[in-house]
Amino acid sequence: MQGVNTNKKPKQASDPFTFLKAGGKKFVNFAITNFCNAKCKYCSFHLERNKTYVKYEDACRAIDYLIDINTGVLALTGGEPLCDEQEAAQLCKKIKKLGLLVKVDTNGAFPDSLKKLIEHKLVDYVAMDIKAPLDKRYNTATGKQVDLENIKKSIEILMSSDTDYEFRTTCAPGIIDENAIHQIGKTIKGAKKWALQAHVPDNAYKKLYQQKLGPEYYHQLKNYFNISKQYVTNTLLRAKV
Ligand code: SF4
């Protein structure tokens, strides 16, 4: 997979976390749905449930309360918050109108929805998962068929936009290895930010991914981190190493 074409230089703008530090406000994750189009083997969100979205009116009440308790950034999560484009857009609009920053956590499967949020300036920060190299390894990670063209489109949209974003990769053993980091790195070369995240066995629903991780895993993680920096300067490691 070749790197995504973009002529734009990464913009070093403030992200929601910088905003928080400056303003002393709260950062709140807001799960607007329990549904996800994927079923990642290491996800904490693994139980089969009916597809449910928070009702818009209920969400608005919750947002009003969150403003009262000094919230500065709302991160829309799920499940996958962009499964329902209309709901996500409506909520982003409401949150922006109230003067808060909006972060969206997405798995990148809905590029059209993502594009509209960006074009209408309804989102300040996007965190998009890249779960594996964009080949047959991807569906091993997601546990369900995911259209890789959509993932690629979402990557292109973010890398070509002025919106702040990060790509995130959970380094699950058996899915991510050195080769995978190189391949993903080539795909997102020059991105604004790439976060490598430690696998959390307690979250996994598949037995294979529930095994405790030893020091060797964390050693490997540091190795992945060093590799990732060859492709994305602003790489960070989210792990207690
Ligand atoms: S895309 Fe995210 S929410 Fe959906 S199953 Fe994977 S890790 Fe869980």
How are the elements arranged and paired?
Blueprint: H1 16-23, E1 26-31, H2 56-68, E2 71-77, H3 85-97, E3 101-106, H4 111-119, E4 125-129, H5 137-142, H6 148-160, E5 164-171, H7 178-187, E6 194-198, H8 215-228, E7 235-238
Parallel strand pairs: 1-2, 2-3, 3-4, 4-5, 5-6, 6-7
Helix pairs in contact: 2-3, 3-4, 4-6, 7-8
The protein binds iron/sulfur cluster (SF4).
Iron/sulfur cluster is lined by residues 36, 38-40, 43, 45, 78-80, 107.
How would you describe what is shown here?
With about 240 residues, this protein is α/β, with parallel strands linked by helices. The chain contains 8 helices and 7 strands. The protein has a single domain (about 15-240), classed as Aldolase class I (TIM Barrel), CATH 3.20.20.70. It is about 35% helix and about 15% strand. The chain has a 7-stranded parallel β-sheet with strand order 1-2-3-4-5-6-7, with helices on both faces. Helix 2 (about 55-70) runs parallel beside helix 3. The structure holds iron/sulfur cluster. Iron/sulfur cluster (SF4) binds near residues 38, 39, 43, 79 and 107.
